[in-house]
Amino acid sequence: MSVTGKNPALTPPQVAKSKGGTPLVCLTAYTTPMAKLVDAHCDVVLVGDSVGMVLHGLPSTLGVTLDMMIMHGQAVRRGLERALMVVDMPFGSYEESREQAFRNAARLMAETGCAAVKLEGGEPMAGTIRFLATRGVPVMGHVGLTPQAVNAFGGYAVQGRGEDSERVARDAAAVAEAGAFAVVLEKVPEPLARRITGEIAAPTIGIGASQACDGQILVVDDMLGAFTDFRPKFVRRYAELGAEAAKAIAAYAADVRARRFPAAEHVFGDMPKAVARGGAA
């Protein structure tokens, strides 16, 4: 059910029904120009809290605020026509209570025009997901490695190895049963991701998971090679825009210092004499 032609925007129920079909194509976006580029090819566009690290230089996603997510969500909304837009709920915006989660999710939807929100967490967040889903807020779940819990995990290690696999499987089942229309599986062993995909009714979206997932998502700047601070194992770079940009900037700097830029074709001459005299012949 990938987007082709002039299809209308996808909805959460349509994504939920895609289980077992053509894999869902998902990417992040944080700006209007990037949203326009990915819209023609993606089923789901996520305004991820990874924006804090990718665009704002933060060491983790923990410093991202609701206002930041709203600002980037508004920018992405201006660039989308067909893809389903989902916005991450940042750390601290939903964990305190179900009521807090609803207030902030409602604000995200009202101020960005997104069709759904994503929140991290398994069994402990199932009640919150159910509370939101029954009040008109479509929720995408996120289990396995949940970056907002980086301090609790002690880093960004693979989750669900060995005996820990049962915890991740329970988390996925809990959020799906609570009403999540899709579930992101991040950085879990391939056999576990394959198992979860076969066990839960909601479509799974993998990132560092399994080809068997019902869809895949990457941070677009990772996939394009524009973000070069580090490269997760699960990222395939389809371009090297960071290296190309560095070469272009170096060439520009060299041309400026050598007075090769601007050249004659880049500057403006005096006004024609007739115009300067007020149009007299």
Question: How many separate domains?
Answer: 2
What is the SS-derived class? Answer: alpha/beta
What is the succession of H and E elements?
A: HEHEHHEHEHEHHEHEEHHH
Distance, first to last CA: 67 Å
Count of extended strands: 8
Keywords:
281 residues; alpha/beta; TIM Barrel; 2 domains; eight-stranded parallel barrel; 12 helices; 8 strands; 37% helix
Q: Would you write up a description of this structure?
A:
This protein folds into 2 domains: 228 residues, TIM Barrel; 33 residues, no CATH class. The chain has 12 helices and 8 strands. Strands 1-2-3-4-5-6-7-8 form an 8-stranded parallel barrel, surrounded by 6 helices. Helix 2 crosses helix 4 and helix 5 packs across helix 6. The protein is elongated, with a radius of gyration of 23 Å. It is an alpha/beta fold. Strand 1, helix 2 and strand 2 form a beta-alpha-beta unit.
Summarize the structure.
The chain has 281 residues and is of the alpha/beta class. The chain has helices at 12-16, 32-39, 51-54, 66-77, 98-112, 126-133, 150-153, 165-177, 190-199, 220-223, 241-257, 273-276, and strands at residues 24-28, 44-47, 84-88, 116-118, 139-144, 182-186, 204-207, 215-218.
Helices, strands, pairings?
Elements: H1 12-16, E1 24-28, H2 32-39, E2 44-47, H3 51-54, H4 66-77, E3 84-88, H5 98-112, E4 116-118, H6 126-133, E5 139-144, H7 150-153, H8 165-177, E6 182-186, H9 190-199, E7 204-207, E8 215-218, H10 220-223, H11 241-257, H12 273-276
Parallel strand pairs: 1-2, 1-8, 2-3, 3-4, 4-5, 5-6, 6-7, 7-8
Helix pairs in contact: 2-4, 4-5, 5-6, 8-9
